[in-house]
Design goal:
Layout: H1 12-39, H2 45-48, H3 52-62, E1 68-69, H4 71-103, H5 112-140, H6 142-161, H7 166-193, H8 200-236, H9 241-251, H10 256-261, H11 265-275, E2 276-277, H12 288-293, H13 295-303, H14 308-338, H15 343-371, H16 373-390, H17 397-425, H18 431-458, H19 464-482, H20 487-501
Antiparallel strand pairs: 1-2
Helix pairs in contact: 4-5, 4-6, 4-7, 4-8, 4-14, 5-6, 5-7, 5-18, 6-7, 6-8, 6-9, 7-8, 8-15, 8-17, 14-15, 14-17, 14-18, 14-19, 15-16, 15-17, 16-17, 16-19, 17-18
Keywords: Membrane, Transmembrane, Transmembrane helix
Protein name: Major facilitator superfamily (MFS) profile domain-containing protein
GO molecular function: carboxylic acid transmembrane transporter activity
Length: 502
C-alpha cells in the first residue's frame, strides 16, 4: 500500500517568526516610502530618471504644483525683514536707554512728564503710520514701502540727534514713527509670503525676534558709548541703516501678490521662476479684487455678536501688553537708578530684559504649540506681573536680574505669542484685518506706557509705585486673555486643519 507523503507543517513558533519578519519588512518598506515622500515631495523619479526625455516629462508634471520659494529666497527675505525689525527695535529702545542722560541735560531741563511725552511722539507716529503705509503698500509695492520706511526713520534719527530744541526733537520723532509704524505689517507680509506653509509661524517668530535684539543693541550701545558720545551720539547711531538701503534694495524681491494684484502677470511669473519652483497661481487666491468683494464679510467676522467678546478681549490684552512693553522699555533704567543702582548697572537691567525677551519668544512658541496659546500667554502674563511687583523689595542683584528676565518674557514674549494666537483665532479671510485692527488699538497702550511712567515718576510717589503700576497692567492683560472664549481655539484648530488638507 503506497504511503501518502506527509506535508510538513511549520511549527507554531516558526510560523510566528515568519509572520513577524514579514510584518517588519512591510513596516520598513512603508517607513522608507514615507521618508522618501518627505525628502522628495515630487517623487523619487525626479532623482532616479536618467533619460532626458523622461526627466523632462517628470519636470513638466511637477511644474503644475503650487509655487513655493527657494530656500535661498526665504533666507534672503527673512534676513532683510529681520534687519528692518532690528533697526526699529533700536529706534524704540534707544529712548529708554538715553532717558537718564536726557533727564540730566541742563540745556533742556525736562520734567519727567515731558520726558514721557518725548518718548510717546514716535508711538503716535507709529499709530498713523500703520494705516498709511499699509494702504500705500498696496498701491506702490511692499518692497518699495519697506525700504522707504527704513530710510525715513533712519534719517529722522540723524536729525533728532542734532535737534536744538525739544519741540523739533519731538517733531522728528513723530515723523520717524510714521516709518516705524509701517515696518512691522509690511515685513510680516513679505516674510509670510516668501516662507513655506509649514514654516511660516516659526519664520514669523524668528523675524519678529529682531525687535528684541534691536532693543538689546540700544542698551549695549548706551552702556558702551553713552559716557563718551552722550545721548545725541547714541541716537545718531540709529541712522546707520541708511547705509544698508542699497544692499537691501538689491537683494529684496517685490511681493508677488502685489504684482498679480496690479495685473503685472508676466512680471510676476518671471519673478516667481527666479525665486521659487512650481506654478504661480494668478487667480482668485492672489487677486486683490476678491478681498474687496468680501470686505463686509471680513468686518462682520471680527465685530459680529459671536466674535465680539473675543475681539474685545484681544484688544484689551494687547492694549495692556504693549503698555507694559513700552513702559518698561522706556522707564526701567530710570526706575532701577532710583532704586539705588548707578547708570551702568541700571542699563544692564535693560540688557537682561531684552535678552530674555528675545529668547523667551522662541521658548513660549514651543510651549504654546504643546500646551495651548491661551493658557501659556495667561500664565506668563501672570508670572511677569508677579516678577515686576517683586522688584519693589530689597533683593540681591542676582534676584533682581532674574526678576527682570521674567518680566521681559512675561511682557514682550507673551505679547508676541498673543499676536500669533490672534492671527490663528480668526478665519483665514479675516486674519490680517483682525490683527491690524487689534494692533492699531494697542498702540494707544504703547503711547500710555511712557506717559504713565512719567506721571508716576513726577508725582512725588516712591519708586515702588512704578512697579505696582506696571504689575497691575500685567494682571489686566492676563485677565483679558483668560476671558477669551474657549470655543475660539477649537474654531481656530478647525480652520488650520482645513487649510492643511487643502
Amino acid at each position: 500500500m503506497a504511503t501518502v507523503p506527509r506535508i510538513s507543517q511549520p511549527s507554531p513558533q516558526k510560523y510566528f517568526h515568519n509572520h513577524m519578519f514579514t510584518h517588519k519588512l512591510y513596516s520598513l518598506k512603508r517607513s522608507v516610502a514615507s521618508i522618501a515622500r518627505e525628502l522628495y515631495p515630487g517623487g523619487l523619479s525626479s532623482k532616479l530618471i536618467r533619460h532626458p526625455e523622461r526627466r523632462q516629462a517628470v519636470t513638466a508634471a511637477h511644474s503644475t504644483q503650487p509655487w513655493h520659494p527657494h530656500f535661498r529666497t526665504t533666507c534672503t527675505v527673512l534676513l532683510v525683514c529681520f534687519l528692518a525689525i532690528l533697526f526699529e527695535g533700536y529706534d524704540v529702545g534707544v529712548m529708554g536707554a538715553v532717558l537718564p542722560a536726557l533727564a540730566e541735560d541742563r540745556n533742556w531741563n525736562l520734567t519727567p512728564l515731558q520726558l514721557g511725552a518725548l518718548s510717546s511722539y514716535a508711538l503716535v507716529g507709529m499709530f498713523f503710520g500703520a494705516f498709511l503705509i499699509g494702504t500705500l503698500s498696496e498701491m506702490m509695492g511692499r518692497r518699495r514701502m519697506l525700504l522707504l520706511c527704513v530710510s525715513v526713520f533712519s534719517l529722522t534719527m540723524f536729525g533728532a540727534s542734532w535737534a536744538p530744541t525739544p519741540v523739533l526733537f519731538g517733531v522728528l520723532r513723530f515723523i520717524g514713527g510714521l516709518g516705524l509704524g509701517g515696518v512691522i505689517p509690511v515685513a510680516a507680509a513679505l516674510t509670510i509670503e516668501y516662507s513655506p506653509p509649514h514654516r511660516r509661524s516659526f519664520n514669523y517668530g524668528l523675524m519678529y525676534s529682531g525687535y528684541s535684539v534691536g532693543i538689546l543693541c540700544a542698551a549695549l550701545v548706551a552702556m558702551w558709548f553713552l559716557p563718551s558720545l552722550g545721548w545725541r551720539g547714541v541716537i545718531g547711531l540709529g541712522a546707520v541703516p541708511i547705509v544698508l538701503i542699497p544692499l537691501m534694495a538689491w537683494r529684496l524681491p517685490e511681493s508677488l501678490e502685489y504684482l498679480v494684484g496690479q495685473g503685472r502677470i508676466s512680471e510676476a511669473q518671471a519673478l516667481a521662476s527666479r525665486t521659487g519652483k512650481g506654478r504661480l497661481q494668478t487667480g482668485a487666491g492672489l487677486d486683490k479684487n476678491v478681498d474687496r468683494a468680501t470686505w463686509r464679510d471680513v468686518m462682520s467676522s471680527i465685530f459680529s455678536r459671536r466674535q465680539l467678546r473675543a475681539t474685545a478681549c484681544f484688544w484689551m490684552a494687547l492694549f495692556f501688553g504693549l503698555l507694559l512693553v513700552y513702559g518698561l522699555n522706556t522707564w526701567l533704567p530710570t526706575i532701577m537708578r532710583k532704586n539705588g543702582y548707578d547708570l551702568g548697572s541700571s542699563l544692564s537691567f535693560l540688557v537682561v530684559f531684552s535678552l530674555a525677551s528675545a529668547f523667551g519668544g522662541l521658548f513660549l512658541g514651543g510651549a504654546a504649540d504643546k500646551m495651548g496659546a491661551r493658557g501659556t500667554v495667561t500664565s506668563f502674563y501672570l508670572i511677569g506681573s508677579v516678577a515686576i511687583g517683586a522688584l519693589m523689595f530689597r533683593n540681591s542683584v542676582a534676584v533682581n536680574y532674574l526678576l527682570v528676565a521674567l518680566a521681559g518674557v512675561g511682557s514682550v514674549s507673551a505679547s508676541l505669542i498673543l499676536t500669533g494666537y490672534l492671527a490663528s483665532y480668526y478665519p483665514a479671510h479675516s486674519r490680517a484685518a483682525a490683527t491690524g485692527w487689534a494692533l492699531s488699538f494697542a498702540r494707544f497702550g504703547a503711547m500710555c506706557g511712557p506717559l504713565l511712567g512719567g506721571y508716576v515718576a513726577g508725582s512725588g510717589l516712591s519708586f515702588e509705585w512704578n512697579f505696582i503700576t506696571f504689575s497691575i497692567a500685567g494682571l489686566a492683560a492676563a485677565l483679558a486673555v483668560g476671558l477669551l472664549p474657549s470655543a475660539g481655539r477649537r474654531v481656530a484648530v478647525a480652520h488650520n486643519r482645513q487649510e492643511t488638507n487643502a
